[in-house]
Structures are given as C-alpha cells and as structure tokens.
TrEMBL record, chain A:
Gene3D superfamilies: Folate-binding superfamily (3.30.2270.10). It comes from the Bacteria. One of its GO terms (molecular function) is sarcosine oxidase activity. It comes from Xaviernesmea rhizosphaerae. GO terms for biological process: tetrahydrofolate metabolic process. Pfam families: SoxD. This is Sarcosine oxidase subunit delta.
UniProtKB/TrEMBL annotation, chain B:
Gene3D superfamilies: Probable tRNA modification gtpase trme, domain 1. This is Sarcosine oxidase subunit gamma. InterPro entries: SoxG (IPR007375), TrmE/GcvT-like (IPR027266). It comes from the Bacteria. The lineage of its organism: Bacteria, Pseudomonadati, Pseudomonadota, Alphaproteobacteria, Hyphomicrobiales. It comes from Xaviernesmea rhizosphaerae.
TrEMBL record, chain C:
Gene3D superfamilies: 2Fe-2S iron-sulphur cluster binding domain, sarcosine oxidase, alpha subunit, N-terminal domain, 3.30.390.30, FAD/NAD(P)-binding domain, NAD(P)-binding Rossmann-like Domain, Probable tRNA modification gtpase trme, domain 1. It comes from Xaviernesmea rhizosphaerae. Residues 170-417 form the FAD/NAD(P)-binding domain. The lineage of its organism: Bacteria, Pseudomonadati, Pseudomonadota, Alphaproteobacteria, Hyphomicrobiales. This is Sarcosine oxidase subunit alpha. One of its GO terms (biological process) is tetrahydrofolate metabolic process.
C-alpha cells in the first residue's frame, strides 16, 4: 500500500488516516436480484494483481468514502475520488 | 417529595480539563485552553452547501470541516452561536451545539510547527497550510480539527472524551521546547 | 600520549580528554573520538569474538558497516547491546563491554568451535540438527542460542523517551559527503526546502578523511564552511546522527536520529532517539561507497582492516592503526590510500599489489616496499596481527607488520534505491554493482552513483541538485566547483577485482560477523546453492546484523568466479529496510505503556471518581465497574448491593459512552428504515423504539434505540463497543449505497452526558431535578422528549429500560453532567440511591434476558436471540434482508437464546462453557451450544446464565450438561426462559406509586 493517499477534500495524508472497505466496483443488488447476485455481492472478492479499485474511508480526516484506484503490484495510487460523487456521476 | 431546598437552582458547568495543572510561567511556546467558547457545527442540507458557504463566508470564526460541513467558533460563551446560526441559516443547514462536546486549544510560539510535527502527518509549512486552512487530522490516534489562525498560531478542536489524552500528548510533544499550558479567562 | 595516537592532527579536541572503560579497564580518549578510535589509540585491537567460531576479531571499518566490533554500552536500565564501536560517540564515563566471549575476550572457551570447524561447515545446522525433531526444540536450539553470540538486552524498563515526527521537504539529501554537501548547498541556495541527513555525528563524509587540500585549505575545513552556510539557511534542516534506513512508497523515507545517545545522561526534555518520516518530493542518495575487503587467508585477524578505515583513523582521529602497516590491494585506490597514510605520518612498510602491472603507480613513501603481482596467503599472530605471508611468482615471504590495510575496490552504497525490489546493476566498467534507475524522484549522486574521484563527486552533487531545482520550477544559482590540490586521475577501466587471493593457508573470510569463509561458498556451490540468494541461506553469508555490507558483493563475485560467470548473472541478495539496525524503543516511539493508546473519559468521570468507583477499561473508555463501600469484602458484595438497590429503590449509572448520532433531512426516516431490520417509518415524534441493525449477511450488527425528536429529526444510540463501526456503517450507506437520499447526520456522543436512573423510585428522584411533569401520562414508556431541568437547563429524557425497572435516561450537555449527577444523588439520598457500574448493569440485563455483544457476537441472527419478530420482511429492502432469508439462517436447530439455572444452586456458571445433552460424553463432537453470559443473581439468590442452545426454545425444562474443559468443570443445569425477573413487565410502570 502507498504511504500517502491524496484525499480530494483534505490533500495528501498518511495512510494511517484511512481505513479500507474493499472492492468499490461491487454494486449492491436490487432486493429481488438472484441468489447468485447476492452471494457474489456479499462473499465473492477478487484479489487482483495490478490495478484494483477500492473504497477507502478517510476516517481520521473528513470521514468521506473515497474510490481509490491503485496498483497492488507497484503500490501506485492512480486516482482518488469522492465515492458519493462517483456514484452520482459527478457533482454531489 | 424530596427536600429540594438543598438542590442547586443552576447546574455548574465544568471544563473537562479544569483539573489539570497549568504552568506557572508562560513560555514562548504556549498552549492555551479556551475556557468556554461557543461552538456550533453546521451541516448543509442537501444541495444547499453553496448557499451556506456564502452566508458563513462573511462571518468570523468559521472553520472548514470537510465537504458541506463547518465549525463556527466564538471565544465568548455568551455568543449563543448555535441558536443564532440556526436562525440565520433556517432550512439551509442543520446546526448542532458542540460547545460541550469539543475542547478548543490554541498553540502559539516559534516552535509550534515542530511541536505539531511530532503528531500530525500534515505539511504545515505556510506555503502549503496557510492562514485559514484547516481540516481534521489524526494526532496520536486522536482525530482532531486543526487550523492555522496566525503565523505561529494553530487552533485545535478535539472531542471532549479525548481531551486529557490529547493534552498529555501535546505536552509530551512540547516538552523539548518547554511548552507551557494555561487556561484562558 | 597513548600508544597509537599521532602527535598532531585529527578532528578531535585534545583539550577535552574523556575517560571510559572497556571490559572494566580504564581508557582515555578525546572529544570527537568514537569508541573504536579511542580503543585503537590505546592500542586495543581485539574488540570482539566472531559469531560461530568465536575467533578473535578487531575493528574493520570506521563506519556503520562494521561487522566485528560489536559491544554492549552502558549499564543498568540503559544497557544496550550490539552497538558498533565505530558508531559509538565517546563520552565521559562511557562503559563498554565486549560480547560473545566467556570468560574473557582474550580467553574464550567458545573458541573451541574454531578447532572443531571441520564439523561446523556451512549448512551444518541444517544437516546436523535435523533429527530427531524434538531435540531441536529442547536441546539444539537452546545450546546454539547460548553459544551464538550477540549481546543481551536489559530486561529492565527503559527510562528514556523516544518519539516520531513528520518532516516534509522538496529535496532530501542522504549523506553529507562531498556530493551531498554540494547538492544541499545548490538546492538550499535556490530556496528549496532541503533536509540533509547523515549517520555521522560530524557532517562531511569522506571530506573528514581526505588528506588533500580543497581551495587551498584542509578538506574538513572546506566541509565545515559548507555546513556553516547550510546551517544558516532557514530553508535547510541538518540532521546529523541520523540514519536514513528505509525508502517507502511515495518517496517517504524513514530515518532514525540518535538525539541524545552520545550524552552521558540524557535530558528528559528530549527523546534519546527519534524516528523521522520524511516526505520528500525528490531525494538524492549521496551515501558514498563501502570499501571491499580482500579475501585472503587469515584476513580476519585483529589488525587487518579496510584501508580507507585506516586512513580515516589517521586523518580524522589522529590514530595510527599500527606502527608498521602493510597495505594489500588490487586497485589504485589502495595505492592512493597508502600514500595518504604516509602523508598523515603512519609508517607504511609494504604495499602488496595483486596486479602485475599497475595502471597508475602513485609514488610510494620512503621505506615502503612495493610487491606487485603478490598475494597474501596467511597472516601471523594470535590475538592481533604480527605479520603476513605473501607469495609472489611462487616465492614465499614473511613480512613483519602490526596492521594490515586492505583495499579491494569500492562498492557504491546502493541499498536504499533497491528497497522497492529493483536490483543493483553490475557494471563491467566499474567492476561494481551500481544503483538501479528508480526514476527521477530518487537518484544517486557521487560515489554512490559509481563515481570514483573527489572532483567528480563534488560536481555530481551540484549537477543532480541543479536538475532537481529546475524540475521543481526554480532557478538554481551557479555553485562554483572548488579546486582540489593534486587531484587523482579518474582510473578509466578498472582492473578486474581479485575476489579471492589464491593459495590461502587458513580460512579466508568473506562474512566476518557470521564466519562465512571462501570454502563455505565453494561448498554451497557444490551442493547446488550457487545463486546469491541460495548461498546466503545455505551459508548465512550476509545474514548477520551488518546485513552483509562488506560481504555481499564479495560473495557474489566469488560465486561468479567459481562458476565462470559475471557477478551480474549470480546476482546479489535483496536489500530491505532497515539499512542499519533500529532500536525497538525508536520504533515504538511514544506508543508504550499507558500512552500506547489514548483513553477516553466520560463527562461523569469526575463524579464517578468522587463516588469511589473502581474502573475498568472498555475499549478506549475508562468506565466505572462498581462502587465499593466500606465493609464490602469483594467486588461481588458491591455488585450484589447495587443490583438490589436498583430493584428495590433506585440507582444511577453513567451511560454517556453509548454512541449517539443525530439525523436530519427529508429522507432520514427512509434511511433509518433501510438500516434497521425493524420498521422505522411510523415511529411517532416524541417516541423511542428499540432497533436492530443487521449486517448484509443477515447477522446482527448492533442494537440500540431510535428516537424521533422532530418530523425530520432523529437520534439513534449505539452500543459503546460498536459506536465507531456504526458511524462508519451509516457513512457508507449514505455516501456509497444511497447517495441520493437526502439525509445528514453527525455524532453527538461527545456533546451529551447521559445517565440512566433505574428503580421503583426513579420517577420521584428525577422529578426533583426536572421541572416538567414526569407522570406516566406525560412521560410514558418509550417517551423521548426535550425536558427542562431546574434552573432552566435543557436536556433530553428517554423512558428506556434495560433492567426491567422503571427507568429513565437523562441527557444533559456534557459540561453540566457532573453537577446534574450530583443533584440526582442528593435528591435520591432519602430514597437510598446508589451509583451502579458496568458489573451491576450486566447483572440487571442478564436477569431481564436482554442481549449484548456477548450474544450478538457476529454469528447470531435476530431469531437466534429471540428477536425474530423484529424482522420486518414486508419492508421492500433493508441491510441484511435478503441474506437473512437463507435456509441456514432460519433452520430450526440453530442455537437459540435460553436461560440456565444450575441444578446445584451453588455452582457458578462460566461464560464460554459448552452445553451437552445430559449423559453425553464430554466432547466438542457432542456440542449443543454454549454459555454466553453468566452471573450471580442477587434478585433470585443463585447463579444464572444466558446461553445459545440448539433448538433451545423447545427445550425449556430439559437438563443439560455444562462442560468447561478449561476449568475442568461438569455439572447439570436446567434450561429456562431467558427472562428471569419480572417476565410480565409489571415493574416498568409500577401500579402503586412506590
Ligand atoms: Zn479527507
């Protein structure tokens, strides 16, 4: 993991201020979705070598959930964005 | 009914750090514990953050506290900020009284950056963290709000329950520079 | 004057003599000495015993690569083992002792290992101690550990302070030698924020050992002038005594500063060591080069050392390492060092050059013989070198000398740049491993980049820093390069290094600290461990505390030579942090003892202390466990009394630590409806409701209350333990799952002091401090309202009970909490009020069958704990809805909450005990469930427990076996309803005013 994450609200901060929440590409299925979809959402996780998109919460700072795109191999952080803004396709 | 005559008619207010030992002499680097500032938290209602920011923009003592959130502070305990702001902002924002939940500390002196560097992983150089800049940071595992209010002046807002631990940490951080501690007022 | 101290010169303060002891003997040195230089000055060449063979060893280097001279410094609480004498700054009263010897350094029984060395070949441990395996643990390992020799740390508490600090800069320069100083100066003059760190206590690096003049003045004066200018620049921070030990992601560097390790008694105002986390936009690795030992027979005898170190002792410390020094070399640098030694007044008796024709013959001092094409095959002497044996063109010759300086060429110190996985790059031109290209943020400069002359290093520092300055958008000043007197010419193509001098008559060591000799590497190769990484594990080469700073490259070169390959093909072992060892104290920083984690205090903490509370740590909180009174013989007596008081009269408990979150907005109700498994949409204003949150997998996450304070205004509470997790859970739901919902919320846990007043007299007591009407009509069960206290203080009142008694939770602004609690106590005195703590709270809820995290352990569903009726399956969606419908979560044989009463009413039940069918064989195979909570019930007069038992609700009246294997207990208990007290809930609203 990188030493620093650049929070879009707070600027670069040490990784100790953040808590990982896991794969950010998973979308919560509709209540009536199939058992398989729900099983996959709750239990199945990829462990990619290379680019990974995760939710990290800036718990020690602004407490926002962030979508962090990072490379598990090189530890490079490729992009960081506010999760709510991403979910709403732009401005919150 | 119980004997009410022995009961107080008003309930004392107590600062969480009221029992600490303060320094006899004020050193060049000093930590001031504010006696009882009026503190309000302002959370913009959905879609109203621009309007709230515009109103708060004209006020003193406003600290940015993350997206769509602000902390407003007045040293005067009689300022009644929460009520005044609630009235001013109406349905634009939710206003919470934080005067009992937060302690406010002001760190001043030539070494305050070096003192803070022992706990805060944030570049506090004035070119990077300028006058009026602020945000929540971790300091020895305590989340606190830090803002620059002067050249050699920083303001800290921290949760009441952590006040003793944070003060202990700040004293350790300042020991090298003989940091003094005092209650204001 | 000491035996080996030169009459003049050196950067020592001859006006400040310092006395110290080594192995109990008194010695003296000067300010500016290291322990090693002072010992050498006093003629002490034997400083340690080697790890495996216990061979006598002397100092080899003058720096941090030292493999041999490991000592234990200080005594009592400040005893610190394994310090390199070359890095220990001398101070008055310093005490040092040698290690890995018994009974003394000169007479060491462990040296028998050396005689037995034929049995102790490489891989010996693996081969010999493999069988039988039990012997390894019981016999071999303790024996090996006792014999294997590093110092012992003190077991006493470290009296000193340590800390960590952050630093930020445009340019971090690692190493304050010629390249580093010039780089720092260039960037500093350009206005960049510069940090210059060096592991030495004096900045200057090789300039402090250089014997030529720079700009007409001694090199160390030149360095001092640069340091003076840098120290005066406000944008430059100098960090002497600071080792940059690690390069981490995002150009964050770790450094350890030895702030006060050089002082006899450290001040308590400062840490003794400080870890710096340096965030650098750019960094330069100006770490210089390490001289390479030559591998020849007897090369480990005390008195044999690196030629550059011999020169450093002479030039910087004014110490002649011997009266008759022989220099052994395979490169021009050895010749230059020999000449420099002579310039500093050290008698060089011979220069033994392995090369037949020297590319660049420096003039030799008078009286020194030059033997070209010669090899050393052995050294003479026992505890120190007395001579050596050379072979030249088949002719053997003995030479008398009392010190041997070896110069095998130079290895750039590339370690930091390789810590992200990049490998050093072998250069045929340099005949050395050079740093890999790791991008523009971190570059090597000077000797670390493979440059070999002083002029090149100075110029490279300027050039690399100028590029950084430009890169960061500033303009660099012109920094003129100084004139060097008698500059050496760059030696174009270096001669092939001599990895092993042939014909060794005794062990030719490669790794001095771990006693790996050339023969061990040959054996490794024969047995198929020829790759550098394999050979390392097989022979332990480069595995000692010096991490092979002297041995790594030689091992690679030797293996390559034996295989007929290039060192590039053999490779070099991986470099990882830390560059040199870092103390545990520094790594812990301030995070030790009670300061390791912050603690949280309730606004009623002062009140509880005044009431004589005994406290317990609950997470970060300090919470009152119970309030003992005089005459109570143990905690149980206090708890029993507190419980009885609540059941019969009234008690006051601090519940401020519960998480409290306020929510606002038009969608707040919908948001809560999706968070809790039970319905929330129709909760009336002014009412509270018990709420249960599930995880998405259907298990219970947390429980608490939801109060509707206004139309779009809610307050929820969480358990103390889960407060932070629930807050994150809400934030995740609001920001990630449903960002379109118009809801805002904030934790208000810190703002409110909250106290629970419970017992039949609760209303009367509370009415004394609250102005509003508290009658059952005005404040019915589950009321949640604003109240006004006497004097006009505004608070919040909740009619919530977890004990089954008439109970209120009163919240007031935290600053008033203590005064309000004291007023309630005063008002309750006539009613026999008592404060009660966590223990009584727990008994009260067990008696009433209320679950907490003992039952809600992440594996239980609402139905398991008897709350299945709360699941609102008719709701379209809530977190956990879908997966809570799975068969496994609704199966009839799941563990279900029941009560237990021991058949023998004296038996205490312990939480964690297993439940088995009566008569079943005690085995987890027969497991039927477990006890989750247990206590003595003062209300019933016997022990009770809550348990999760398979199909438990159908088994009321059955007897089960309570089996606690840990405590060797087996006894019978009866399965009963989990509600032990007041099952009909009559006490919540007493009929008669009590
Ligand atoms: Zn942030």
């Amino acid at each position: 993991m990188a030493s620093l994450i650049s929070c879009p609200h707070c600027g670069p901060r040490p990784k100790e201020e953040f808590a990982v929440r896991g794969d950010a590409t998973l979308l919560r299925p509709a209540p009536e979705a199939s058992d398989e979809a729900w099983h996959a959402y709750v239990y199945l996780r990829a462990n990619p070598r290379g680019v990974h998109v995760e939710h990290w919460q800036h718990v020690g700072g602004c407490r926002r959930f962030l979508v962090v795109e990072r490379n598990t191999l090189t530890h490079d952080v490729l992009s960081v964005a506010d999760a709510a803004e991403v979910a709403q396709g732009g401005a919150a | 009914m119980s004997d009410l005559s022995s009961l107080p008619v008003a309930f004392d207010w107590q600062h969480p750090l009221s029992a600490i030992l303060t320094s006899d002499v004020r050193a060049v680097d000093h930590l001031e514990i504010l006696a009882r500032p009026s503190i309000a938290r302002v959370i913009a209602a959905a879609g109203e953050s621009v309007a709230v920011a515009a109103i708060l923009g004209g006020m003193a003592g406003v600290r940015a506290a993350g997206p769509q959130e602000w902390i407003v502070l007045d040293d005067d305990p009689q300022a009644a900020l929460p009520a005044r702001l609630a009235e001013r902002l109406g349905s634009l924002a939710f206003v919470l009284d934080a005067g009992d939940g937060e302690v406010c500390l002001r760190l001043s002196g030539p070494h305050c950056r070096r003192i803070l560097a022992k706990g805060v992983g944030l570049d506090l150089h004035p070119d990077v963290f300028g006058l009026g800049d602020g945000g929540f940071v971790l300091c020895h595992a305590i989340r606190m709000h830090l803002s620059r209010t002067g050249d050699n002046l920083f303001e800290i807002l921290a949760p009441r329950s952590y006040a003793t631990s944070l003060l202990d940490a700040l004293k350790r951080m300042g020991r090298e520079f003989d940091l003094s501690v005092g209650l204001s007022g | 004057m000491s035996a080996h101290r030169l009459l003049t010169g050196g950067l020592i303060d001859r006006g400040k003599p310092l006395s110290f002891t080594f192995d109990g003997r008194r010695h003296s040195g000067f300010a500016g000495d290291t322990l090693a230089s002072a010992l050498l000055a006093d003629g002490v060449s034997l400083m340690g015993r080697s790890f495996k063979y216990h061979r006598p060893r002397g100092v080899m280097t003058a720096g941090s690569a030292e493999p041999n001279a490991l000592v234990t410094v200080g005594g009592g609480t400040r005893r610190e083992p394994n310090l390199r004498a070359t890095m220990v700054e001398l101070h008055e009263t310093l005490t040092a002792v040698s290690q890995n010897r018994w009974p003394s350094l000169a007479t060491d029984f462990g040296a028998l290992n050396d005689r037995l060395s034929a049995l102790l070949s490489a891989g010996f441990y693996y081969k010999t101690f493999m069988w039988p395996s039990a012997f390894w643990e019981k016999l071999y390992e303790p024996l090996i550990r006792r014999a294997a020799g590093l110092g012992r740390a003190t077991l006493k508490r470290d009296p000193d302070a340590y800390e960590k600090a952050w630093a930020f800069c445009d340019l971090l320069v690692i190493g304050a030698g010629p390249a580093g100083l010039m780089a720092a100066l260039t960037a500093g003059r350009a206005g960049l924020r510069v940090i210059l760190a060096d592991e030495d206590f004096r900045l200057g690096g090789w300039l402090l050992s250089e014997t030529r003049l720079i700009d007409g003045r001694p090199a160390h004066d030149f360095a001092a002038i640069l340091v003076e200018e840098l120290a005066a620049l406000p944008n430059v921070t100098l960090l002497p005594r600071s080792t940059v030990f690690g390069w981490y992601d995002d150009n964050v560097f770790g450094a350890v500063e030895r702030v006060q390790k050089h002082l006899p008694i450290p001040s308590d105002k400062q840490p003794v060591e400080r870890i710096w986390r340096i965030v650098a936009k750019r960094a330069l690795m100006a770490t210089g080069a390490e001289e390479r030992p030559l591998v020849f027979g007897g090369n480990d005898r005390p008195g044999v050392m690196m030629a550059g170190a011999a020169l450093t002792y002479a030039a910087r410390y004014g110490v002649a390492v011997g009266k008759r020094v022989a220099v052994v070399t395979a490169s021009d640098s050895g010749r230059q060092t020999a000449a420099a030694l002579a310039r500093r007044g050290v008698e060089v008796v011979a220069l033994i050059d392995a090369r037949t024709a020297s590319a660049q013959a420096s003039p030799m001092p008078e009286g020194a013989r030059t033997l070209t094409g010669a090899h050393v095959v052995d050294t003479l002497g026992r505890l120190s070198v007395e001579g050596l044996v050379t072979v030249r063109a088949g002719f053997e010759e003995r030479l008398d000398c009392d010190a041997v300086a070896m110069a095998g060429g130079w290895n750039p110190r590339v370690h930091l740049a390789c810590q992200h996985g990049a490998k050093p790059v072998w250069s045929d031109v340099h005949q050395a491993f050079l740093p890999p290209d790791v991008g523009p943020d971190f570059q090597a400069a000077g000797a670390a980049a493979g440059l070999s002359t002083l002029a090149e290093a100075l110029g490279d520092g300027v050039r690399k820093a100028t590029a950084v300055v430009a890169d960061l958008g500033r303009s660099a000043p012109t920094v003129p390069l100084p004139e060097i007197d008698a500059e050496e010419a760059a030696s174009g193509a270096a001669a092939s290094p001599v990895w092993l001098m042939p014909g060794a008559r005794s062990k030719a060591f490669v790794d001095f600290q771990n006693d790996v000799h050339a023969g061990d590497l040959a054996l490794a190769l024969r047995e198929g461990f020829g790759h550098a990484e394999h050979a390392k594990r097989y022979t332990t080469n480069a595995m000692a505390t010096d991490q092979g700073k002297l041995s790594g490259v030689n091992a690679s070169g030797l293996l390559a030579a034996m295989k007929g390959l290039s060192p590039a093909e053999v490779g070099i072992t991986t470099y990882r942090p830390f560059y040199t060892p870092v103390s545990f104290g520094a790594l812990a920083g301030t995070a030790r003892d009670e300061e390791a984690v912050p603690h949280r205090l309730s606004p009623l903490d002062g009140w509880a202390k005044a009431q004589g509370a005994m406290f317990v740590e609950a997470g970060l909180w300090h919470r009152p466990a119970y309030f003992p009174r005089p005459g109570e013989k143990d905690w149980r007596a206090s708890v029993d009394r507190e419980v009885r008081t609540v059941r019969a009269a009234v008690g006051l408990c601090d519940v401020s630590t519960l998480g409290k979150i306020e929510l606002f907005g038009p969608d707040a109700a919908e948001f809560l409806n999706r968070l809790y498994c039970n319905p929330m949409l129709r909760l009336p204003v002014g009412k509270a409701r018990y709420g249960l949150m599930l995880r998405e997998d259907g298990m219970v996450f947390d429980d608490g209350t939801v109060s509707r304070l206004g139309h779009q205004h809610y307050l929820i509470t969480t358990t103390t333990a889960m407060a932070a997790k629930v807050m994150s859970h809400l934030e995740h739901a609001a920001q990630v799952l449903w960002p379109a919902l118009q809801v805002r919320f904030a934790s208000v846990s810190e703002q409110w002091a909250q106290m629970s007043l419970a017992g039949p007299k609760a209303r009367q007591v509370l009415q004394a401090v609250v102005e509003d009407d508290l009658s059952a009509e005005a404040v019915p069960p589950l009321a949640a309202q604003a109240v006004t206290l006497r004097g006009g203080l505004r608070g919040r009142l909740f009619r919530i009970s977890f004990s089954g008694e008439l109970a209120y939770e009163l919240a007031v602004p935290a600053g008033h909490g203590r005064a309000v609690a004291e007023a309630i106590m005063a008002a309750g005195r006539a009613h026999g009020i008592c404060p009660y703590g966590l223990e009584a709270l727990n008994v009260l809820r067990i008696e009433k069958g209320h679950v907490t995290h003992a039952e809600l352990d992440g594996r239980t569903t609402p139905d398991d704990v008897g709350l299945g009726h709360m699941l609102a399956r008719q709701k379209p969606d809530f977190i956990g809805k879908r997966l809570s419908e799975r068969y496994g979560l609704t199966a009839a044989d799941r563990g279900q909450l029941v009560g237990l009463v021991p058949v023998d009413r004296q038996r205490m039940i312990r939480a964690g005990a297993h439940l088995l069918r009566e008569g079943a064989k005690p085995s987890t195979l027969n497991d039927q469930g477990h006890v989750t909570s247990a206590c003595y019930s003062p209300t019933l007069g016997h022990p009770i427990a809550l348990a999760l038992l398979k199909s438990g609700r159908e088994r009321l009246g059955e007897r089960v076996l309570v089996w606690d294997r840990l405590h060797k207990e087996e006894f019978l208990a009866e399965v009963v309803s989990p509600v032990f007290v007041d099952p009909d809930n009559r006490k919540i609203e007493p009929k008669e005013p009590a």
